[in-house]
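Record pair follows.
FIRST:
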Amino acid sequence: MGNFKVTKKHHKHLNNPFPSAPNHIPFRKGTVFTTSAAHPSHQLYPIGTDFQAIWHSNENGETGSGWQISIHHRLQPQEPIWSTVPGQAFVSAGCADTEVEESRGSFAIHDRDVHLLCDHQSVDEIRVVDEPDEGDNVSWGLELGEKFDLGGLNFPVLLITGSVFSSKSRKSDESGGDEGFIFVEKHSVSVRYWVLFDQKNSNQIGFHVKFEKPDVQHGTLRSSSNWYSRGWGLRLRMGRIWEKKWTGWCLPFWRTRGFLADSSPEGTEGSDKMENCFEINRVWFTYSSEDGERFYGFGEQFSHIDLKGKRVPIFTQEQGIGRGDQPITLAANLVSYRAGGNSGTTYAPSPFYMTSKMKSLYLEGYNYSVFDLRRKDRVQIQIHGDSVQGRILYGRSPTELIEAYTWSIGRPSVLPEWIISGAVAGMQGGTDSVRLMLERLKSYDVPICAFWLQDWVGRRETIIGSQLWWNWEVDAERYWGWRELIKDLGNQNIKVMTYCNPCLAPADAKPNFRRNLFEEAKELDILVKNKEGGPYMVPNTAFDVGMLDLTHPDSRRWFKGILMDMVSDGVRGWMADFGEGLPVDAFLYSGEDPVSAHNRYPELWAQINREFVEEWKSSCGESEKEATDESLVFFMRAGFRNSPMWCALFWEGDQMVSWQAHDGIKSAVVGLLSSGISGYAFNHSDIGGYCAVNLPIISYKRSEELLLRWMEFSAFTIVFRTHEGNKPSCNSQFYSNHRTLWHFSRFAKVYQAWKFYRTQLVKEASERGLPVCRHLFLHYPNDKRAQSLSHQQFLVGTEILVVPILDKGKKKVKAYFPMGENEAWLHIWTGKLYSQPGREALVEAPLGHPAAFVKAGSTVGSTFLENLKELNLVH
């Protein structure tokens, strides 16, 4: 079994500002072996009622190169939805050590010493298995039942068996025939595998790969000082050198130490016999791709829409500060280990994608995985575990694939009407500040639906500034007359929203606390534990916190009580923050592996909040249930594959107050669109961004222009919500002056003008899983230009096209009108008609008039324009 090590970097204050990418085992490439005598050169195998697999080889029967298996749907039998690379192994396995470097919510997962690599694969048997009730299927059924859960299988299923092994192979004619028989020379390590394909429904096929323990019979152990280990080290080093050339980064040389299997029967002095001491903890699943194929999805990705050519890790964590934009990333990395993040770090990843060729796949389970898309002709997924399970999807369009995917993982519930009816004003300061702000907003005729008051718990001064008290009860001094304030706002159809997260800070130093929730949770023994059995204190910015063990049933019940206290005061919404920081060496009540639990934790956090919402709804009277203005809503940033089933509304976390590409206004658009493809139908960002930096050398402050342009962009998303940011005094705010208040009012009204359509899209999302804001690829999949777009523009549903200004000082923007049949687009401010699909046009977009268009002749477009006129926004 490989070793596992966690290295804490929380308190390291001087770090490499340019950290290298985490060490990883180079791309695996092995050969598949079989015999044409065992497998005809072309054979069809049914899988369920709607799919079939085809196994075929070259016409001359040559083994090795040419053997391939592909899967097809009966509606398009000529187009494979998944296929292996001809002649190449499609499953591989290994054993390696793992090191995780952790620092304040950021994680770097390294492959360290490699003990075993089984790259080559034999296909010994391909068998269609019907229900195991009679005849020859009985023995197969028994074997199948030993390895897989037979419950719910739709027979017939396809079972492929064989071995993966670590030695070289050669061709031989010793079989006496002319089939070109392949056999394996005495290999030192072999691992038997099973691959099961079964139909899940009419548009999904499941796959499940399992391995036995390695069979080590003929090998010897050689220390890393001998020539064989040095040879392997050289091969791996050369692999890393190639990867440097590929990525353009200087990555550290790969090092192999410890023991490696040797196929030689002769040992060296001091060598030991190989024992069955290894267990598989790395699995590779490899299959074909096409040159030029674009890959979309993978959850909420902030830097790239098309991930082809990238290596995509699937691990929830802090997105980072800068994520490659300079100089902020350098500075963040310098003062806190890897705090800058990179183009692959995200709060809400998902092991799912779809491609421009209508291929789609996702992994089940929660193990750490990496999708390697750097090769033109293949995809390779590395899974940290001893098996892999997932589904391959069939669809004839991107929207069909999203529907198929969200049918499995879950779709969001319908949002309460109030949250999509007006602006959500994010502010702080206490009761008096809220009442004064309300009067200012009224004077500018701002349609407001809620105040979001994250400082309802009170504020504390730390070495990094003013922060919240993580003790989830109202601060009665800051928000005196709390219930009266909520009631007064409610009488004006304005809700109050608050803030919480699954962490608790000791409240001993807080002068006016009523309950010390950390001490309560500690006494109840419902906090995540460290190896000594005490509360695991997790460093977070300037103070340490305990995390709720969400696998503990008492923890769930207790926190729902906290939420009930909050809602009983009249609160109707809250930010359910964090969820991405579970330490990977924690000890949980469930006893599960903390590495996989880390990816599951944000789903558990969402589930608790959702369960409370449903339980509260059930406890209400009939009149309250029917009153949509009394429904609850929460929003989150952390997530994983199934999060949309539990959390309806997301926000994109902490973008920089910047125009830059990887962490700023542009990344907010990319995150919105990539998450939408991945099932996150309702997502939005903090207007103006969140993270400001005010240092003598490096300064990032929210400018007025950035704030106003972010308002224009956000007016076309599901929720229109402001945030003061981490340094309110450094940032331009919606209430800063007459111009900002006027602009805020104007675009809150633009947002209000398409509420009728937003309501339709919310219902559609709950029924079909389609996002409100959409990449053009979803509706124009054959348009090459639309496929290549990133942050430049997006659709709202199918009827509104938005081309936001995302660069400082720009007043014109290039708009691309996609290749739709007989489509034309109408500019909402001037009424100009653009009727040449597939063309770009330079469009005027001064402040207050962003480039937005409606589909000519559509009912939605006409209604939107009429509403804009009634609100005196257009003439």
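SECOND:
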Amino acid sequence: MTRILVADDHPLFREALSGALEPYFQNAQIIEAGSLDDALDKLNQFDSVDLVLLDLNMPGGEYFNGIISLREQYPDIPIGVVSGSDSVEVVAQVMILGAQGFIPKVTPTREIAQAIMDMIGGKKWLPEGMEAELETVDDELKLLLQRFRELTPKQIQVLSFLRAGLMNKQIAHEMNVTEATIKAHISAILRKLEINTRTQAVLLMDKLQLN
């Protein structure tokens, strides 16, 4: 049986997408999740899931944490990002970070069904013409994304707090860990991103348009 996990924090969108896909996947089990934690719990409940359709900005998935967490914990499950934004920069980011495909939310249902079949079959899927547009993304951004991909979900969480202006002690309190642990995370972040200061880390996040 084909299993597809639809992870989006808008119940109406999840229900609409699940209902629209049923005629194309009559023998499939479509599972729904409303947050990243919920999605990870659902993946843990089932022996196999063939595809995750992931909303970028669902709770817990900010700063691409959704893709990175899923890639880290379930590296063999393909991820199709479903998003209201279809800018070439966003598409480049999710593809370099490990997505199997990118589906704008305005995509017709028949095309979404074809995209799902392609991704389950191991093919990448992008909207028509998008692959050519990705060639215009500058090499510096691609290199930065490759480095960003090496960060762990915890390190991304630390980065998000740095961007919000929190000090190490405050971050430690928010994450319920020691200040020494936060310092170790920051050192690892700087090393992986090949930078020297936390200010540079925040500027890089801004460059990646992480929000």
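COMMENT: The chain is about 50% helix and 10% strand.
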